[in-house]
Amino acid sequence: MNHRLNFVAALFAAAPLAAAAAPDVPMSVVVVSATRAEHTSFDLPAAIDVVDADRIGAAQPRVNASEALATVPGLVVQNRQNYAQDLQISSRGFGARSAFGVRGVRLVADGIPATMPDGQGQAATFNLDMAERIEVLRGPFSTLYGNHAGGVIQLFTRDPRGAPYIETNVSAGSDGMRKLDVNTGGKQGAFGWLLDGSRFETDGYRAHSAATRDQAYAKLTFDMSATGKLTVTASGLRQDDTQDPLGVTWATFQRDPRAGEIDATDPQTPKRTLADRYDTRKSIHHTQVGLAWDEKFGQDRLHVAVYGGNRSVIQYQSFSKAFQAPASHSGGVVDFDRDFYGFDANWQMVRPLGDGTLHTTVGLEAGKSNDARKGYENYVGTTFGVKGNLRRDEEDDVRNVDPYLQLEWERGQWVLTGGLRHSRVSFDVDDHYLANGNDGGSVDYRHTTPLLGALYKVTPTLNVYASAARGFETPTLNEVFYSGTGNGFNYRLGAATSTQLELGAKALVGQDVRVNAAVFQVRTHDELVVDSSSGGRTSYRNASATLRQGLELSLDADLRAGFSARVAATVLRAIYDEAFTGVAEGNRLPGVPRTSLFGELAWKDADGHLQAALETIASGKVNPDDANAATPAPGYAIVNARVQASQPLGAWRVREYARVNNVFDRTYVGSVIVGDSNKRYYEPAPGRNWVLGASVQYQF
Questions:
Q1: Residue 157 CB contacts under 8 Å (≥ 6 apart), including other chains
Q2: Distance (Å, rounded) from C-alpha 601 to C-alpha 14?
Q3: Of 142, 118, 149, whose CA–CA distance to 49 is shortest?
Q4: Which UniProt keyword terms apply here (predicted)?
Q5: Integer Cα distance of 180 and 174 in angstroms
Q6: Cβ–Cβ contacts within 10 Å for residue 534, how many?
Q7: Segment 71-92 mean pLDDT
Q8: Which segments of 266-413 are extended strands (E)?
């Protein structure tokens, strides 16, 4: 109740104060995620939202996708205040159990998957500085992207255009946050270029959470003919010795949200935290390159994309019984080097059929990742946080091959859609460390995901739709690594399957208001849940059935006199539909809030040179465990304020901004680590914090 009152109060209080940047109400947004071809989102039988460049950069340092994606209903994106583990993203409750990275939601950047063939992705690889828009697709339509269940998040960088320019962005804020970004771009004749480099540093809000991130990005475009275009993209991410603050118990959170968990086994006095004693940290080096060819043949189009890259990680974990670790334990240091590559090719045709028009897309997508993976003890003698004896040495291959077909027939007031995708995901493990037995083996997952959808245009300003699909979600490589409390690979894990239904309406109210609403239900069988989680490693098992039922609502309104508003609300009932060991029927799925809300009242002057806003972000309580026995992370509501100014000065463009997050300095848990056996579930969020930024651009 408290967070609802805070939200209402923020909206009304903003009226005399507001001044913060919000784009004009998007009445007809063009998207490509649902159909792989340009299409207005208003005429699609799917829940899809677009976060544009203005929103991504709305008085933000553009470090985390959570800064912008909070505005999307159905999506929960949490900054864990832990750059070693990336953001926590869930869509309609899928992905909430991920201990690190993103699973259950497919990530794509410029047509190149940021999600590996096993379904695990990394949002940190997104380059937000060059982003033109982010499309968020939820519900049945997302099943046409294969091995996941919750949704698809696609980032599109802007295409090079116009006269050459150079731009510098600087920002600084609380907890030693600072960022420098330099980019340049332009287009001359048939050749366009976009180059970007940035460094982000923070001392971290939580103890032992400092991070440094270097990113680089390049995009080259070549107009090969009047109908053909070649696009080359390359990107790199480097994070060295990113500190991992770990989760904390409820008692530690209440005592001091910034503190780390004390290691009771530490012989020193006073005792150190687990993070300090083991110097928990992660280093990441990620590079990738992609080429995309697009050729038009009248109304038809051919798209071919190929990509490849490398990701190397070394991570130092903590566990308090290092010297008693069983022979099957792979040690507290994870060290792997991954090569990945793949392609996606599709042919899109437009033909008349009967009294309507048929759009057909036929495609094939394939990918492979190969890990040279080793594990070491995280101690030598009595010294912790160093690489010790070898405990693991293997080669892990994951492959997927997915043919797909999508049809859309438009006739009069009807738009009918159908789709089919057949996915095969294969895991192969070659174990070279045989001192604890041979954990080598293989497992294949195969599934066909059909989709049906229909949209009816009731009036030019009101569309209603229905869609249904079958989906599936394999275990990720990290989820099959362990079985039970430390044993080897769990090849018995099955894929979760789901049946998804959605009803929705999209309405334009006059010239100034757009409303999207969707109700949905998802029934899942063989849901993957945490079996045990201890010592930095988590094992999983297939549970019984789960049920997700929910409502999503978004509203964008132009209130005149420069004012605008956005509301994005979600109500989600996510429960276990059948009991299993230790979990009762009706228990809430962990990591999933029942309600979440974003509200904003914004203002800008007639020229758009001065902008400001008040935002409210609210969330219901979150259970951290399947049994619902642990203390839930309480619900919360926070208020943010931002202001931005820009000045065009001939060939120069100058911009300044200021932002204050959590204006009323609320203490709350930002995210939870689902199923942690040591009950260190909680990841505290910052109190009041600020950021200042400025940019200067010169166009030649």
A1: 109, 110, 127, 130, 131, 132, 194, 217, 219, 233
A2: 6
A3: 142
A4: Receptor
A5: 15
A6: 16
A7: 91
A8: 281-297, 300-316, 333-353, 356-376, 379-380, 383-384, 390-411
Q: 43 by DSSP, 3-state: which?
A: helix
For residues 465 and 507, the answer to whether their CB atoms sit within 8 Å is no
User: Residue 157: pLDDT above 70?
Assistant: yes
Radius of gyration of the chain (CA): 25
Q: How far is it, in rounded angstroms, from Cα 149 to Cα 686?
A: 31
Give CA–CA dist 168/164, Å, rounded.
14
The token pair that represents 116 in the structure block: 């590996």
Q: Give just the sign of the alpha carbon dihedral 79, 82, 83, 84.
A: negative
21 pLDDT band (50/70/90 cuts)? Answer: very low
CA dihedral 154, 445, 396, 389 (to 10 degrees): 110
pLDDT digit string (tens) for 288-327?
999 999 999 999 999 999 999 999 999 999 875 555 556 6
Cα separation of 131 and 108, whole Å? Answer: 12
Consecutive H or E run containing 275: helix 274-278
Considering only CA atoms, which of 602, 599, 600 is closest in space to residue 21? 602
CA–CA dist 526, 443 (Å, integer): 17
- Any idea how long the chain is? 700
C-beta separation of 406 from 46 below 8 A: no
For the cut 80, the answer to whether the pLDDT of residue 463 exceeds it is yes
Measured CA to CA, the distance from residue 200 to residue 242 in angstroms comes to 12
3-state helix vs strand vs coil in the chain, percent to 5: 10, 55, 35
Cα distance between residue 232 and residue 230, in whole Å: 7
**Which pLDDT score, from 0 to 100, does residue 310 have?**
97
The candidate with the shortest Cα–Cα distance to 676, out of 619, 610, 621, 631, is: 631
The whole-angstrom separation of Cα 517 and Cα 529 is 30
d(CA 136, CA 68): 11
Interval 86-126: pLDDT, tens: 888 999 999 988 878 888 899 999 988 999 999 999 999 99
Q: Is the pLDDT reported for residue 480 higher than 90?
A: no
pLDDT at 12 over 80: no
What is the pLDDT, as a whole number, of residue 543? 84
Give the mean pLDDT of the chain: 90
> How many angstroms separate the CA atoms of 589 and 622, rounded?
9
Q: How many helices (H) and strands (E) does the chain have?
A: 6, 39
> How far apart, in whole angstroms, are the C-alpha atoms of residue 198 and residue 127?
10
Contact 149, 496 (CB under 8 A): yes
**Structure tokens, 412:** 């009069």
pLDDT at 535: 55
Check whether the bond before 270 is cis (ω within 30° of 0): yes
3-state SS track over 411-477: ECCEEEEEEEEEEEEEEEEEECCCCCCCCCEEEEEEEEEEEEEEEEEEECCEEEEEEEEEEEECCCH
- List CB contacts of 175: < 8 A, sequence separation 6 or more: 202, 203, 204, 205, 686, 689
